[in-house]
Sequence to fold (149 residues):
Amino acid sequence: MRIRDFMTKNVVSVDQDASVQLAARTMNMKKIGCLVTVDKDAVVGILTERDLLERVVETCKNPKTTKVSEVMTRSIVFGNPGMHLVEATRLMFHNRIKKLPILEEDRLVGLVTLTDVARATSVDKKTMNLIEALSNMHMISESQEQISM
Fold:
């Protein structure tokens, strides 16, 4: 199965100069966990719920005056629509991400989330194992940190 077969094609994006409050309102209204951040038509980042918690809520930044560009994740891993499902899942696991923007010729054409992968792979045991490991990656990193202490 290829990514193009199940990726979300209508990706919701936000301008990097928008306020965090507007971004959070958009995420709540659309009931989504991330926004792809753009500057003109170029993808420059991704804003996730985790970014909001760690970089806005925990640090007590004002969401009305804080720009998305100040708190978004800038280092983005991309997939492409021709990738096989297992390849995309491994990429997500390796990079410890749950959202994978999909580019084709440097143009945003879709988004794949861990939820999308789970829906698409409900019958594939090998991929389900990868998904389970990915969803538990926070526990893996915590146990590795405890071991190294």
Remarks:
- The two ends are 41 Å apart (CA to CA).
- Residues 3-148 form a domain with the CBS-domain fold (CATH 3.10.580.10).
- The CA atoms of residues 81 and 94 lie 19 Å apart.
